[in-house]
Amino acid sequence: MKKNQTIFLKLCLADALIKLMASQDYDTINVNTICKVAGVGRTTFYRHLNHQKSKDELLMFKLNYEWEYYAEQHEEDVKKDKGFAMLNYIYENKRLFTLLNNNGLVTLIMHLFEQLIPAEEIYDKSLSYLMSFFSYGYFGVVYQWIKYDFDETPEQIQKHIIDTLSSGMKNPQDEK
């Protein structure tokens, strides 16, 4: 199957899974049901996906694909401030992120952050610690935002992040 057809197939399957997640628990959704909703045979499904983690793989594919599409459409914004662009991407896809959270799939969101924040660049050991600290901290803020049902704008969340980083950089001796 050609690359574009594979992408289309995976997107159809992911969309079917997401549609099902809106009405039933993630753990109860099986491959047969996904295939039926997507109009795809099981053989085709397994030809393109890992047998053990196929549902997770579909969702990660969808998240990455949607991010890449968003980043392409907002190239200047991503270059200017990738973190803020990610907040906007998440906000525009808040229904999906809420579904992931409501179905106990927070680790998928965390894995997305692991992939996107460092942009898969290679760092030395000490810088890798810093990137992990930043990635998981940023994830933590977004996770709370999801739990608060996106009750603030991306601009407000960015301000919380900046304020938190600024307060963490202050020297406690300076306040005396």
UniProtKB/TrEMBL annotation:
One of the Pfam families matching this protein, by short name: TetR_C_8
Record Gene3D superfamilies: Tetracycline Repressor, domain 2 (1.10.357.10)
InterPro entries: Homeodomain-like_sf, HTH-type_Tx_Regulator, TetR_C_Firmicutes
Organism domain of life: Bacteria
Transcriptional regulator TetR C-terminal Firmicutes type domain boundaries: 86-165
Coiled-coil ranges from the UniProt annotation: none
Signal sequence coordinates: none
Name of the protein: Transcriptional regulator TetR C-terminal Firmicutes type domain-containing protein
